[in-house]
Write a structure and sequence with these properties.
The complex is a heterodimer of chains A (about 280) and B (about 250).
Chain A (H helix, E strand, L loop, with lengths): L1 H9 L1 H27 L2 H25 L5 H22 L4 H22 L5 H8 L7 H30 L1 H6 L4 H23 L4 H15 L3 H26 L3 H24 L1
Chain B lengths: L3 E12 L2 E12 L3 E5 L6 H8 L7 E6 L4 H4 L3 E4 L13 H10 L9 H13 L15 H14 L4 E5 L7 H14 L4 E5 L3 H7 L2 E6 L1 E6 L5 H8 L23
Classes of the chains: A mainly alpha (about 280), B alpha/beta (about 250).
Chain lengths: ~280, ~250
């Protein structure tokens, strides 16, 4: 661990990575709790995978036509668009929801791969999109992550009561005059933003694990939604910081190490819970 | 003269080509306790959802508290079946009851008034001592009472119950019926139930739903119209939990 701590004082890329992990943990714990209690992991998965389309297209425009867009901005656009489509299908269409989600999931990826193949230069970016590259986070990315974090925390603070009502009993919420479609859309948009943050840290493929494992572990330990959020944030912090340190020290891929940590934490909580009862 | 709180005129509803309710006309006055009975698939739940504004009639009209159901639904306290809830959802009893207040503001934290109304609602259903307990850890009867408290916390003028005694043991059932009678002193109550015994004992009138809808005072319910409603021969069994040692004696429903 000594090497990690020493280098942390010297290298800014390592400091940025650590801060990115800390900031992401906040929205990950909060939104992950909603995803888990609402049982909409599949929606999060679809949004995550379709961000590849946005990143691929943005990178293509940036490299080939010198458009002032970054892959991160492309990812935000794709994720928000996917969230809007999903919300529309859910409330205003007779299509099967999981069919539409699968379409968003795979078409998004296909578009991304198409654009990446048409973009000149090295294609190693593809790997960092899929599996994350927390060590590549720049100062500018940190600023965006920070802003997205603020938005998510602000919205949840304002509308916590509405959101928990809609998640717990949609019908009752509608009868009591809450605009369920609006808050459902709001939740999906926040999931989209959180997914984009997590793509930076653990990559498209593993986003779903970060949204569910810490929150599910937290859910086993506490009995109220906001307690679950706080506990999930702490578990996310342990996973991102611990995963980063271990992966740096032992030269493992960071994203995968963070996810394995999250898996271990989840199973540890289950074991402790069983053991505590016995 | 009691005010009319629900007025249904020549209302019909169908799902696609399947006619569920036909030419329904009835009205309900304030502080009545009405039982809605009928066979499964007869349209009880559909009628309830129409009165809540969750569905729109194809023909005719529904007026609730002098307005369209959709515009009045926030004045209705709806108590759904408690078995529909996710047992893993992390909420306390008080959290659930507070949800009755959520529709009253634009957002932000609850006011002191909201908290007081929720606490009072919990006292009304005699569950205040459990307010910190997880909803998932409650018994069926306690969950039902929590959902009743949530409806009360919304300061509703009308209460709708969907099968309030499903998944509840007979002691808790008795408790819930007593609670309903008490609430009926101030509020209009509509109870969807398959439990004809309950209906005969507690409610003033029944709305019988099997595509067609009839409303009768409970005293008129007998074997003949039960058979009409359910469309089959039925043995009448009293749902009376206080059996005497000598067995049942038939009484007029």
């Amino acid at each position: 661990m000594g090497q990690f701590l020493r280098d942390l004082q010297t290298y800014s890329f390592l400091q940025y990575a650590l801060i990115a992990g800390l900031l992401t943990s906040i929205s990950c714990g909060i939104i992950g709790s909603y995803v888990t209690v609402r049982r909409i992991t599949y929606i999060a998965g679809a949004i995550a995978h379709c961000t590849l389309g946005g990143m691929g297209a943005a990178r293509f425009l940036q490299k080939e036509y010198a458009f002032p867009v970054t892959p991160l901005q492309g990812a935000v656009t794709a994720a928000l668009l996917a969230a809007c489509i999903i919300a529309m299908v859910k409330h205003h269409s007779s299509q099967r929801e999981d069919t539409v989600l699968s379409a968003i999931w795979s078409i998004g990826m296909a578009v991304g791969i198409f654009f990446i193949s048409r973009t000149g230069g090295y294609n190693e970016d593809l790997m960092s999109y899929l599996f994350g590259d927390i060590l590549m986070v720049s100062q500018r990315d940190l600023l965006l992550i920070g802003i997205l974090d603020l938005i998510i925390v602000g919205v949840v603070l304002l509308f916590y009561n509405k959101l928990i009502s809609v998640c717990f009993d949609e019908e009752f919420a509608r009868i009591s005059g809450i605009r369920v479609e609006l808050f459902d859309l709001l939740l999906l948009l926040m999931i989209a933003l959180t997914v984009v943050l997590l793509v930076q840290v653990v990559g498209i493929v593993m986003v779903v694990a970060m949204l569910t494992l810490p929150a599910a572990g937290a859910g086993l330990l506490v009995k109220r939604l906001w307690h679950m959020m706080v506990t999930a944030i702490l578990l996310c912090l342990v996973c991102t910081t611990g995963g980063l340190a271990i992966s740096y020290q032992l030269d493992f891929p960071a994203g995968a190490t963070i996810i394995i940590m999250a898996g271990m934490v989840y199973f540890l909580v289950i074991a402790l819970k069983k053991w505590g009862k016995a | 003269m009691k005010k009319t709180v629900i007025d249904v005129q020549n209302m019909s509803f169908s799902f696609g080509s399947l006619s569920v309710l036909e030419d329904v006309t009835f009205s309900i006055k304030e502080r009545e306790m009405i039982g809605v009975i009928g066979p499964n698939g007869g349209g009880k739940t559909t009628l309830l959802r129409l009165m809540l504004g969750l569905l729109k009639p194809d023909k005719g009209s529904i007026t609730v508290l002098g307005n369209s159901p959709k515009n009045s639904s926030h004045r209705i306290g709806y108590v759904p079946q408690q078995r529909l809830f996710d047992p893993l959802f992390p909420v306390s009893v008080l959290d659930v009851v507070m949800m009755g207040r959520v529709g009253k503001s634009w957002g932000g934290p609850f006011s002191k008034n909201d908290r007081e109304l929720a606490a009072q609602a919990l006292r009304d259903v005699d569950l205040y001592h459990q307010h910190q307990t997880a909803f998932a850890d409650l018994s069926g009867g306690q969950r039902q009472r929590t959902l009743i408290a949530r409806a009360l916390a919304s300061s509703a003028e009308l209460l709708f119950f969907d099968e309030p005694t499903a998944n509840v043991d007979s002691f808790a059932e008795q408790n819930i019926y007593n609670l309903l009678s008490k609430l009926n002193e101030k509020l209009t109550i509509i109870v969807v139930s398959h439990d004809v015994g309950f209906v005969s004992k507690y409610v003033g009138s029944v709305v019988c739903v099997n595509r067609l809808v009839h409303i009768h005072p409970t005293s008129e319910i007998d074997g003949k119209n039960i058979q009409d409603i359910y469309g089959a021969d039925l043995a009448m069994v009293r749902h009376d939990h206080r059996c005497s040692e000598k067995g049942h004696t038939w009484v007029n429903f």
